[in-house]
Structure formats: C-alpha cells, structure tokens
Amino acid sequence: MNTVTGWQDTCDSNVELDSRYNPYPNMQTRISAALVLILSLCSSEALAQRDLFPCENPNEELYNIFENGSLERLYVHGCQGVGLDGLSTSILMPSGTPPNQGDEGEDNEDLLQDTPYESWTCRYSAGNLQDGDPATAWVEGKDGQGLGEVIIIPCLDLSQPVEIWSGYGKSKNLFQFNSRPKEIEIAILDTNSQIMYTQYGNEYLNLKVVKKGRQTLEDLNGYQSLYLPTLTDEYYTDENITGRFLAIKILSVYPGSKWEDTCISEVRNVEKD
Ligand SMILES: [Ca+2]
Prior knowledge:
The protein is built from five helices and twelve strands. By secondary structure, the protein is α+β, with helices and mostly antiparallel strands. The protein has a single domain (54-94, 114-269), classed as Sandwich (Jelly Rolls). The chain is globular. The protein starts with 24 loop residues before the first helix and ends with a strand. Mean pLDDT is 83; it is low at 1-29 and 31-49.
C-alpha cells in the first residue's frame, strides 16, 4: 500500500502506516499522534498523555501554489483554533517564555481541550483567520514584512462573496503599529483526488491552481471585499471536485509604524441579512 487507509474505522486492527508515506513535516507527527490515540482508544487503558498540536511547523510547501501552480498535499485540521500551522508558510511566535508543555503521565481527561502551550504557539496562527473575532490575527513570522508569505483559508464557500479584515483589528493602535497587506495575489486551487480522512482532520492530495488574480487592498481597519477570480457556476457545482481552497500571497504592505509584522484578522463569506 502506498497510502494510509482505514482511518474512519478507529478500532480497525488493520490500520497501518506505510514507512514510505512522507507528507510535509508536521503531518508525520500528526499521523503518529492520531495513531497513538486510535490505538489507545482501542485498548481499555486510559490515555496517559495526550499528543500535542502546537503550531511549530509552518508549511513551506504552500509557496508552490504560486511558484508552480500546484500543491502535493494539504492537511486541514479544522477551520479555526490550534493546530493549523499547516495553513501558512510562517507564523510569528509570541515573545516571552512559553508555558510548560506538561509532565509525562499527566492526566488529561479532556483530550480535545487545548493546552496552554498549544494556545501559546498558535496565538498568531492561521486558526485566527476564521474564528469570527477581528481581535485575533494570523501574523507572518519572517524577518521583515513577510512579503511572499502564503496562507490558505480552508472553510469558505468560494461561489459566494468573500470579505477580508486585513491588519490587526484588535485596536486602532495595533492596526497602525503592525503592517497590513496592500497588494495580494489570490489563487483558487482544487483537487479531485479522494480525501484522506484522519482522526483529526482531512488530507487533500494533488491540488492544482485553477485561477489566480491580484487585488490592491484598502488600508482599512474593517471588512472589505475580497475579489475572487471569476469561475463559472458549473465549476462550483462540479461534483468531481473533492476540495476547493483559497490561497493568498502577500506582495506588498502598508508598513506598520512600530513593527514590521504583517497581519490578517479575518477572511469570511459575506454574511447574509
Ligand atoms: Ca480573527
């Protein structure tokens, strides 16, 4: 076998992990974590320690979306919250000392509860782009203004209008202090490959860019329209497409008055009245 199968049946004793299976770096950790959880749940023993999903491995393969028009794999853990480091090419790490990661054997009764360490590492991750809160933002983690950095927004209906809150919307001052995207490149990419279901999310394979566009954003601390590349209605009703995503690349910025870090607070479908 050259793929991981059987993940939907969590107590399937035939679950196997092919050693040749080598997705982008953090995926291996997550598959291992999922496998540990599956095996633990399938036994009668309580899980002594939960595997973490901190935001420590941004996904540099996302550069390929705009450089080559393709992406071999995309793992989508969810729409918001922790564990979404695979949706951006970089993430700013908070300053200061990180919380303790927890002791070996610590009793974690709620396996789905985020730990302080996870939350700390994910404070500026792409999980903030769809949490409905303009006071939280994805912040790129490169030196300088993050020109060329890429994010994917997984949970959008691309057949409907989309809007963006660029910059750090937490306050008027923080908006001005940090950089805001100015010119951006936008791509719609999709796949018709079978979705790989795992305990913690879905993996999409062999994604291709179907259309790209550019937009110059206003320097506005609020929602503004994001103009998607035009595709036909037939495209959006094509049932052969198993995954369809929006990617954004930062081309230029309105410089922050205090820090260079470039932020985006929200990307969402326009809410209907
Ligand atoms: Ca947010």
